User: Fold this.
Amino acid sequence: IAIMQYLIQSTSININAKDNDGNTALHLAALEGKVELVKLLLWHGADRTAVDCYHLPAIAYALDGHPECVQLLLDHANIKNINKSMVNNLQEMNLLHFAIGERRDGLNGHNRAKCLELLFSKDKKTSTKLLGQSDVRKFFPLVAAVFAGQHEVGN
Assistant:
């Protein structure tokens, strides 16, 4: 964190710079569940709506079992708008699909359930609508939960 803080404060670094895959530092911090780094980046104006080359915002990666990061990214965010920014992702997955995950090991179900709870508590109406949207495999989020072995999340 100290290195990142130094770079942000001591240079004219573009906090929203993207790598070859369109990932910002916020995407990578969310993916790794680095709560303090997500806080630092947001404090310094990181764009929580930026999408990568797959049309995914940082919250899609945080939903991989990092509820503290999800909460930070949901602050001052609109789930409906976030999901609209994801319309062009090739898998046609919505935020609920990302919270459920693709692993068939059933691991991390407790944290994934917390992520789902955060989405529903932020905007129950939009999250409920997302339950009716399938991905490219025609998996609705509840079907995806069973397929991924996330039975705790699918209950």
